[in-house]
Design goal:
heterodimer, A: mainly alpha, B: eight-stranded mixed beta sheet, two-stranded antiparallel sheet, 15 helices
Chain lengths: 274, 364
Amino acid sequence: MTESKNDGSDWIQAWIEQQREQLRRAGMPGADAAGAAGGTGDSDQYRDLGMRWLEAGQAYLQGWQQFVQRSASGSAAAEIPLKFGEEMLNAWQGTWAGAAAAGEGATRQFADLISRLPAMGLAREQTEAWRELLAAQSEYQHLEQELRTVWAKVQTDALALLETAIRERREQHGGAAPGVEDYRELYNLWVECGEKVFAQVAHSESYCKLQAQLGNAAIRLKVRQQGVLERALKHFDLPTRSELNTVHKQIRELRERIATLEAQLAAGRGEETP
Amino acid sequence: MSEVTPGSAELAAVTNDFMRRMSQGLAALANAGDVTIGSCAKDAVFTEEKVTLYRYRPSEVMAPENRVRTPLLICYALVNRPYMMDLQADRSLIRGLLQRGVDVYLIDWGYPDGADRYLALEDYVLRYLPHCVDFVRRASGLDRINLLGVCQGGSMSLCYAALHPQRLRNLITMVTPVDFHTPENLLTKWAKHVDVDALVAASGNVSGDALNALFVSLMPFRLNSQKYVDLLHQLNDPKTSGAALENFLRMEKWIFDSPDQAGEMFRQFLTLFVQQNRLKHGTLEVGGRRVDLQQITMPLLNIYALQDHLVPPSSSKPLGELTASCDYSTHEFQGGHIGIYVSGTAQRQIPDRIAGWLRERDVK
């Protein structure tokens, strides 16, 4: 049974707490990512990956042991291949399941490793291109996370402002009324508070800078992606955007020269020019 | 035993009620049909590459002798489609002007594609716009015509007017940014640290969708959420007409039907106008020619919206002090950047103001 105050305002506070809880939950992935970036997270992932491969290897060996034991005891020969097949399959399924689960972390670690190696040999240029791409991606993700944090703070502050607004409304009614009548009114008030908080943040120099930094990082990432892609396209003798740009620039220059000549001809005829 | 949070039962009840209304609204929304855009008959009279010049057919209600003799050319912005000027019969600046005897031409810039990434400011201000002006001059047999620039199209119109003052009888600017560095101008603040050269070098044309995302993020709570919640609630109201839903859907189409921006033009506009504020400072050059707003001597009507969050009034107002217009007037509209075209108040005020102002300054 829930207790309810006479002014019927408990549900409003419950809604605000519900939003706060959602924001806390939304913040968790970010916290995980921060942990993974640290030194201990790296070693945990390697250990985890190793353990999974070890377990898989043990299951594989057990399968062989059982097969050998059964063969030696001369038990029902027809069952053995079937059962052994199942066991082998289970062992390999376990192996790949483990690998898949650790795959994401391993990929990240591999990318990190690649990014720290000096590029050399026949694949030097490709390696360098990929390394730059990965660095740009990492920079972008870092800034994106920073911006997410700012947005989360906007929402948290908006809830605090909402509480104040409701309290003020309630006080205006002598504390007897709940402050807002229904969910829609509460929602509209929340939007109003959100826009107020955001407007202050959005006009701040730090936010303008952060948003621009993220945009610039996205541009650098795109440039690196294009570089890798164009290298592949050239390999197959397919046209690239860079080549098209060159053609368009040439067309533009020709058009300008024609326009200049036309203007000179028009001027020679005494006509007005645009 | 788990504790029950005070108010949780009531919250569940009001949330359910809210969600039920939203679901009913969604069901009603699912029955909505397609919407049509535009209400006035028009003819394409001139084309150049992707640019099309339209002439609207004159209103038959107005006797020819009572019409404004000098035609009006509307130069719209590049960032949205110009059909906002004639969205539907009861929300149409163009219809209002035609009904008041104005001969209306409109420039449609088209949808730039990858082949247009090097289109520059001089293409728009020294080629397309002059060619359209010259077509209207020839068609009307008049040396000087009237020009109405809208938003970014207003900034381009100011450039043209400063370079070719002798070809314009009257100039009108609507929600036109002139001073990009006023404290209320959020877009400028956001653009300040953007590496525009790198952006255009990497993306070529700048995606209209990306710009939309930027505009929506100026007021994220209202524009991403509240307006849709409002719509779903309205749809539950039996008093809400089908026309209201159609109006909403038509606006949605217009808002998100955004052409990509030709890369070089975007780079120049953002750098020269927005970041460096050169139009205001008199240091802007187009095709090697300096744009001096003091060259604008013709009558000038400056219309701006007091609740405009994209082009704040503080950005438009300085125009009066920057030109040498012999006859400068302003019109303050109580509304926003979009409301100035589509609101009921706008339908009553804006065409009247423009047509009346033009008529007073028409060729005798």
